Amino acid sequence: MIAQGFIDAFAPWKTLYGDSPVVATTVTTVHVVALLFGGGFALATDRSTLRALRGSSDDRRRQLAELHAVHRPVLVALAMIFVSGLALATADLETFLGSPVFWVKLALVTLLVANGALLARTEARLLRSPTAPATTTDHSPLWRRLRFSTFASITLWTLTTIAGTALVGLS
């Protein structure tokens, strides 16, 4: 069976992780800190975006620049979340492969990354448009898409965190 092959392949990692409090603590810390910073930056920026969408064209223009600036740290955090999450999952594949909560969390992370790509693409198109910051949110499909993506981001970061917390009880 394929699952057993993966379980066997990661047996040395499972042993190291289980026998070394330093390794286990380091991996868990990286995961939680990346979630804190990535989610924190994203949620703070989402809040600012929602406020700017109700503001002036100058507010929207400034927020587009802020969105552009925050993408890199959020992407770095997502990469760290992915790598540390993989390390956490492979330390106990028997538990996680059979857990619906694990698969829900993976689906949420996938949606989070897809939504981040949509948000980045929308922000880039708005930045390239010479009239975009002057248009109101009610009249521009790009601004409506940015609003939708912002609400989706808030929802997905929250649900991903809840799913991750539920996984802690499994291991």
Estimated radius of gyration: 19 Å
Catalogue the unreliable spans.
none
Query: What's the tally of helices?
Result: 7
Beta-strand percent range: under 5%
Helix and strand arrangement:
Blueprint: H1 2-9, H2 11-19, H3 21-53, H4 57-90, H5 93-97, H6 100-128, H7 141-168
Helix pairs in contact: 2-3, 3-4, 3-7, 4-6, 6-7
Note down, in words, how this protein is organized.
With 171 residues, the chain is mainly alpha-helical. Helices cover 85% and strands 0% of the residues. It is built from seven helices and no strands. The longest helix has 34 residues, at 57-90. The protein has helices spanning 2-9, 11-19, 21-53, 57-90, 93-97, 100-128, 141-168. The chain starts with a helix and ends with a helix. α2 packs across α3 and α4 (57-90) packs antiparallel against α6 (100-128). The chain is elongated and about 60 Å long.
Keywords:
171 residues; 85% helix; 7 helices; mainly alpha; single chain; elongated
